[in-house]
Amino acid sequence: AQSVSQHNHHVILSEAASLELGCNYSYGGTVNLFWYVQYPGQHLQLLLKYFSGDPLVKGIKGFEAEFIKSKFSFNLRKPSVQWSDTAEYFCALYSAGNMLTFGGGTRLMVKP
Amino acid sequence: NAGVTQTPKFQVLKTGQSMTLQCAQDMNHEYMSWYRQDPGMGLRLIHYSVGAGITDQGEVPNGYNVSRSTTEDFPLRLLSAAPSQTSVYFCASSSLAGRSYNEQFFGPGTRLTVL
User: Fold this and answer.
1) What tens digit of pLDDT does each residue of A42-55 get?
2) Number of helices and strands (H, E) in chain B?
3) Gap between the Cα atoms of B101 and B21, Å rounded
């Protein structure tokens, strides 16, 4: 069965600091990975996705993620965070039947 | 388009009560699903549907029923609420065009507390 792990449950950063959120997955099929963001009081929004090709994918709002097959990882990065990036971030894996398996989420707080 | 809408936004129930969480989408999506979100556990799939009249169980279906009589609506029923069902519930929908993944669009969520 597939699984997704996010080891950082809470992250606190100051504005302009660099961000890296870890995501590891376990799945025996073709890997399609996503990062979703949930801003306070809002619904989930897609940040970026990896299907195939270039392992470095760029998403909205300056976020990027790198797929490293040998490490079963898909870490999310941003060079310089802003207060408005305060949110909860979810890594997710697509499997057959349009199903998503989510990680436990990482709450990011950016201090102004 | 309103996208995916959910009602109510908040609900408090007593143990043993029943209720229905409503979900509707106006994008003519075939696929609809219900997730529950619990701290540290991410979102877990409860039930899903690939079209009117077709539903199936997800990862955590116990205690929940669903039906899909129309393309637009996908209600989630709690027949006898339990405190373990205290959670935030999200509905999502997507197209099923093509063979690869189609982006799922999420509703705003329903926060349910069972006392």
Assistant:
1) 888 999 999 888 99
2) 0, 11
3) 26
Tell me the nearest-neighbour CA distance from A38 into chain B, angstroms: 10
Query: B107 and chain A: CB distance < 8 Å anywhere?
Result: yes
Q: Are A76 and A26 in contact (CB under 8 A)?
A: no
CB-based contact A4 B42, cutoff 8 Å = yes
| Whether pLDDT at B93 is above 90 | yes
In angstroms, what separates the C-alpha of A24 from chain B's closest C-alpha? 14
Q: Locate tokens 């043993």: which residue?
A: B16
Other Cβ atoms closer than 10 A to B84 = 10
Residues in chain B: 115
Are B92 and B37 spatial neighbours (Cβ–Cβ below 8 Å)?
Answer: no
Q: What pLDDT is stored for residue B99 in this prediction?
A: 64
Between chains, do B101 and A94 touch, taking CB under 8 Å as contact?
A: yes
Place of tokens 């998503």: A100
